[in-house]
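Quick start: what a row looks like.
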Amino acid sequence: MRAKGVRSTRVGYIGGHTSEPTYQEVCSGTTGHAEAIEVIFDPEQTTYEDMARLFFETHDPTQRNRQGPDVGEQYRSAVFYLDENQKSTAEKLIGLLRAKGMDVVTELEPANTFWPAEQYHQQYYEKTGKSPYCHFYTKRFD
């Protein structure tokens, strides 16, 4: 899925306490990092709220420390916000989902250093020809 206004994306690790973590270190559960995606978007074409809505509609915000068959703290549902506006937007969206009866477990954390993942993880599905197995679009907002 290509979202309007997205300039670029990178996968990587954030929310931990180790500098320059590797995939193996993150998977060991000792670094505290989450696997994440960094999205750079054009604010003249889309908004942070639109991007956050897409986040909540392309993963399961009710799964704690997992996404589909991927299990571990590094797969936790989390929003790493850059400022109070982003935090309040995420809180609003979580409130909307909870009002619909969803048991949202998404954590809100201030962003710290984003460490890009190894090159073989970037654009993974395009490189391998595989289909996403734990991220499916599900409309959750009206």
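That is the whole record. The two ends are 19 Å apart (CA to CA). The CA atoms of residues 34 and 74 lie 4 Å apart.
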